[in-house]
Write a structure and sequence with these properties.
By secondary structure, the protein is an alpha/beta fold. The protein has 19 helices and 15 strands. The radius of gyration is 22 Å and the shape is globular. The termini are close together.
Length: 505
């Protein structure tokens, strides 16, 4: 790239972010974790190699035309290269998930030695480069055998099987893993997988949008969510009784957290926003912090909402050492019917919630705009309403068309805007302890396959070798983490040296 072109790009970034208060990596504490994230099915590939068996995500992806994770980024074979890229970037942590069927192919029973070795080697490689592993136990990939046997998350049998799987992970990897997330974005997982039918295993009531072969959108999301809370609490109890004293780790649950703000300053829209927060945040967080579901959900759902026994309530309450937040975008909330880009079905969770959600970023479903104030609002709400729990932002990032420019200026603007929002929240008292960009590299995406991507490294999916190339965002993040880039007060000479790898595809 010609120097003038480079300088023009950097000038655009500086101007585009001039509204952000200046900050540097040093404005965060030394122990604040900056990292990036992937998940097993989206990153590893090697779907039928070395003893791995199908999960519900394999089955689901092969029934649609958005591609699949059979090869994905080939992280299974290229993990050493990827860890080297992470180390070169200066990442302090890497979030990934364990493929249940790679480790325990039948869902329960014998451990697969090759799967066990892969994760031990990956963790060893991360540790050897000074990168903290943050492990998610479950990221949408239930063993298909357990789905076939008893219906997976809508059956209480999942609690025992998930706890046994967690036990193997704690025992085998726990000496080197200090941060565990039990279930990825439990709220949206329950809604998308058991109410809307757009995520594995694809359950929903019959409707004109999605062709689900099974499901009940009015009951299954709440049943699955209930079992997730109980499975999380069971695994957490096991860890604290059997492993925590020796391994000294922490265990938490993650939720998907939209930014939510009233559409107008009317009392009705304020009430609607509080109701949305009760359904979208309180559904999981109120049991974890206070031991029971929000009153708003109890009144609306009646007998469709499962009930905790007194013993279960006590076990769920306090079972998360931290809350993981998955956040991408923000919505305005209103009681009045209005055009909304959010795909709300005429049944299930969103009908029960009873509000309208309008994009605050004037964006499409796959290329939303940055609204960092929405994340600040989420963190402030959790601070005020849920006893200010320790928080890790486990996913945050911007999708762009996959074959767009390596000079992903909108992503750079997005990431630094949200990092600034996290810093503001911390200054206002939030106990936020880490921030992870989704994603480290381009991966197979749940809703869009390979057409859009979030990666800071471009992956050429047409190349059998899955060649990785750094985008501008990788160089920016590296410069920020290494202390050579200050947000807003950026020196063009420093920027040129840090972004020299950027080019067109």
């Amino acid at each position: 790239m010609k120097p003038f072109s480079q300088f023009f790009i950097f000038l655009v970034i500086v101007l585009a972010t001039s509204y952000i208060d200046a900050f540097t990596r040093n404005d965060f504490s030394e122990d604040f974790l900056f990292g990036a994230a992937t998940s097993a099915y989206q990153w590893e590939g090697a779907a039928d190699e070395d003893g791995r068996t199908p999960s519900v995500w394999d089955t689901f992806s092969h029934s649609y035309d958005t591609g699949n994770g059979d090869v994905a980024c080939d992280g299974y074979h290229q993990y050493k290269e990827d860890v080297k890229l992470m180390a070169d970037m200066g990442l302090q942590a890497f979030r990934f998930s364990i493929s249940w069927t790679r480790l325990i192919p039948n869902g329960r029973g014998p451990i697969n030695p090759k799967g066990l070795l892969f994760y031990k080697n990956l963790i060893k490689e991360l540790r050897g480069h000074g990168i903290e592993p943050h492990v998610t136990l479950y990221h949408y990939d239930l063993p298909q055998s357990l789905e076939d046997e008893y219906g997976g998350w809508i059956n209480r049998k999942i609690i025992e099987d998930f706890t046994a799987f967690a036990d193997v992970c704690f025992r085998e990897f726990g000496d080197d893993v200090k941060l565990w997330t039990t279930i990825n974005e439990a709220t949206i997982f329950a809604i998308a997988s058991y109410g809307e039918g757009v995520a594995p295993p694809g359950h929903c009531s019959p409707n004109k949008f999605i062709n689900c072969s099974t499901g009940n959108s009015s009951t299954e999301p709440y049943l699955a969510g209930h079992n997730m809370l109980l499975a999380h609490a069971s695994a957490s109890k096991l860890y604290k009784l059997k492993y925590k004293i020796k391994q000294r780790g922490s265990i938490g649950l993650s939720i998907f957290a939209f930014g939510l703000s009233p559409y107008t300053n009317s009392k009705d829209d304020e009430i609607a926003t509080q109701r949305a927060k009760a359904f979208l945040f309180g559904w999981m967080l109120k049991p974890l912090v206070f031991g029971d579901y929000p009153d708003e959900m109890k009144r609306t759902l009646g007998s469709r909402l499962p009930v905790f026994s007194e013993e279960e309530s006590e076990q769920v309450k306090g079972s998360s050492d931290f809350v993981g937040i998955i956040h991408y975008t923000t919505f305005y909330v209103t009681n009045r019917a209005s055009a909304s880009i959010f795909p709300i079905m005429n049944q299930g969770f969103f009908k029960d919630m009873g509000v309208y959600m309008i994009s605050a970023g004037n964006s499409s479903l796959f290329e939303w705009e940055a609204t960092p104030w929405g994340l600040e609002g989420v963190l402030e709400h959790l601070k005020q309403s849920y006893n200010n729990p320790p928080i890790y932002i486990l996913e945050n990032g911007k999708p762009m068309k996959h074959d767009s420019m390596l000079q992903d200026i909108p992503r750079v603007e997005y990431i630094q805007g949200y990092i600034g929002a996290v810093l503001n929240a911390i200054k206002n008292g939030s106990d936020t302890r880490g921030y992870f960009v989704w994603s480290m590299i381009d991966v197979y995406e749940l809703l869009s396959g390979y057409t859009t991507s979030f990666g800071m490294y471009y992956v050429n999916f047409s190349d059998p070798g899955r060649k990785r190339s750094p985008k501008l965002s990788a160089s920016w993040y590296s410069g920020f983490l290494n202390g050579t880039i200050d947000v807003v007060s950026q020196d063009s000479t420093q920027l040129q040296s840090n972004f020299s790898a950027s080019s067109s595809l």
